[in-house]
Design brief:
The protein is α+β, with helices and mostly antiparallel strands. Helix content is 38%, strand content 18%. It contains 17 helices and nine strands.
């Protein structure tokens, strides 16, 4: 069963029903329908600007290239009156003009907003914005969504224990963030795994993760949710690792091979798959061995890496080519998401360090990156520059107008 959460988002989204059942395409894509479910943490006395308008403005500013709270405030300050109206800022009855919120107003909201609720709203918006997969032919079986789970430390942040904030993210292999959760202080990613995936539809999905999440409880959880897994096995699980490594790999035929020439190196990948019914892991049906041979073109030095994995997919559920694609695609979460946040948004250099602000800013960056990926953009920096040249472009992207 999905883990309980204090956030009101899941139950509220259930009241809306499946987005594609009762809403038009424009309604589904309207970010306001989801952000309205995020509780305003501010004192109701003296409120001048609605939380939904402030959040929509912050998201729009990040879509236009804002990297910091100051940049977000500058974008809002420079916004024309028509853009402020679309965002939801009311006009002054005396002057007829829409006042602009101070930078401290935006900071206070993001500093106290429920991170779980904000992430749930963003995840639901992105899932509703994703078109359903085409129905497969009967003989091809179900269309599987592949989800990568990986963590990232926001190095510029600080918590009460003087350690940096760690975020665990679930992203599909196309680069769209589906869920995010902050890892508790003095803990690690393992307890956050099930709560992270609790709000996602995992039926027939394939979840990929690194060796840290090759836990018996995780395997049982995914099988219980109707999902499959491709899990890395390393020496932190010595019994399982020895069992997989000692299989007669020399006698098993090659299942898949690729050769690439990029990043100043040659690389050959070989994959073998062994059906095995007695692996000491819940639902495990096959063992996988991947051998990566690389040669650095500048030094000529070769390296060989052997990786062992297990999967709950049988030989009838996935081909060797699909398994190889999913294994390699898992690391797309580093290139498609974490690398972009670090290099394009300069996340690790951010001066936003304390409270919930680092998490909130990471959520806004995830939303911007995911929206661009859904729209077919591959160069996020170019997409930010293009969107930032017109105040209406981020509003149209979020279907606010």
């Amino acid at each position: 069963m999905p883990a309980r959460t204090s956030s009101p988002i899941p139950s509220a989204l259930e009241q809306l029903g499946s987005p594609t059942d009762s809403l038009t395409s424009s309604d589904v894509a309207d970010l306001r329908r989801f952000l309205i479910l995020v509780t305003d943490p501010r004192d109701a006395r003296g409120l001048r600007y609605p939380a939904v308008a402030l959040l929509c403005a912050a998201v729009s500013a990040v879509l236009a290239g804002a990297r910091s709270l100051i940049a977000i405030s500058e974008w809002i300050t420079g916004a024309p009156q028509y853009a402020l109206g679309v965002l939801g800022f009311a006009a002054d009855p005396l002057t007829g003009l829409r006042p602009v919120p101070h930078a401290a107003t935006v900071r206070r909201l993001l500093q106290h907003v429920d991170g779980d609720a904000l992430d749930a709203a963003i995840g639901a918006f992105l899932q509703a914005r994703t078109p359903p997969p085409a129905e497969p032919e009967a003989e091809k079986g179900p269309v599987r969504r592949v989800i990568a789970v990986d963590g990232k430390v926001v190095r510029g942040s600080r918590t009460k224990t003087a350690t940096a904030i760690q975020l665990l993210t679930a992203m599909d292999h196309h680069g769209v963030v589906l869920a995010k959760r902050q890892v508790a202080s003095k803990s690690n990613e393992i307890p956050a795994f099930a709560p992270l995936l609790g709000g996602l539809d995992l039926q027939n999905a394939v979840v990929t993760a690194d060796a840290l999440h090759t836990q018996h409880d995780h395997g049982a959880y995914l099988i219980g949710r109707g999902a499959h897994y491709v899990a890395v096995v390393k020496k932190n699980h010595p019994g399982l690792y020895a069992q997989v490594r000692k299989l007669p790999w020399r006698d098993i035929p090659l299942g898949h091979r690729t050769r690439d020439h990029a990043h100043h190196r040659d690389e050959i990948r070989r994959l073998k798959v062994a059906a095995f019914s007695h692996l000491d892991y819940p639902g495990a049906r096959q063992a996988i061995k991947v051998v990566r041979w690389r040669r650095d073109l500048s030094t000529g030095k070769p390296t060989i890496e052997r990786v062992y994995l297990i999967t709950s997919l049988s030989v009838f559920d996935a081909t060797c080519t699909e398994l190889a694609t999913w294994i390699r695609g898992h690391w797309g979460i580093e290139n498609l998401l974490h690398h972009v946040r670090d290099r394009t948004f300069r996340e690790d250099d951010s001066k936003v360090r304390t409270g919930t602000l680092p998490r909130a800013m990471a959520s806004l960056r995830n939303l911007a990156i995911s929206v661009f990926r859904q729209d077919g953009q591959t160069n996020i920096a170019a997409a930010l520059r293009h969107t930032g040249r017109d105040y209406l472009r981020p509003l149209r992207t979020l279907r606010l107008t």
